[in-house]
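Title: [Solved] Importin-11 3D structure

Original question kept below for reference.
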Amino acid sequence: ALSEEEKTSLRAGLITNFNEPINQIATQIAVLIAKVARLDCPRQWPELIPILLESVKGHDGLLQHRALLTFYHVTKTLASKRLAQDRRLFQDLASGIYSFACSLWSHHTDCFLQQVCARDEAAALSSLERTLLSLKVLRKLTVHGFQDPQQNMEVMGFLNAVFERLKQFLECCRQVGSESPCREKLEKTIILYTKVLLDFLECHPCAFIPLIQRSLEFAVTYVFTPVGEGVTFERFIVQCMNLIKMIVKNDTYKPTKNIDGEL
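Solution (posted by the thread starter after getting help):
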């Protein structure tokens, strides 16, 4: 019902600034941008992703957070499209921005860990929020952005780094204690790390083969040995058990039956 001129004007207006101070309204704006992007990005709206990436790099805390929030919702929406042509477009996007997404996640994670050590809880909570959003973006890019992820060194490097980051974040649970304002979001981030592994295993079982031994060793160590005492929590233990179960029961890893031998 809208003319192309009106659409262009509306799209431009949506991304003129990311300074909305109220979280709920900022989330609604991000969802709205993502819904428009589902129809128009990248063909009719090629400038969206470059503007988001540029805004995410900014030093203004509020602007950076809102841009990252929008970046996540856009990535999530584009990753959900299932037509072959749309999936190819998302794979092209993923290959172009994956390095940036990894560096963003790594930067915010390092900032959070440093601030936790310095006992700066307000700054740590802000960095943790950005870590969570950038990890959500990476989860979508890693699981849905590559047809043969095992051939991409950055993807496999990120997945291997997940185990080290999980150990660091679990140790943070011991440091911050149950009363810390960071605790709830910290547990959400830990669960999200396990979801990255579970989703990747489900969608790319063959690419997951190099990670099988490390995944099993990690899950068993934290669930069944004293290493996990004082740092694990119920939902994390459930996720570890799911990881073990999915590996053991995955049809891809079961040997084929030798019919000739049985006869």
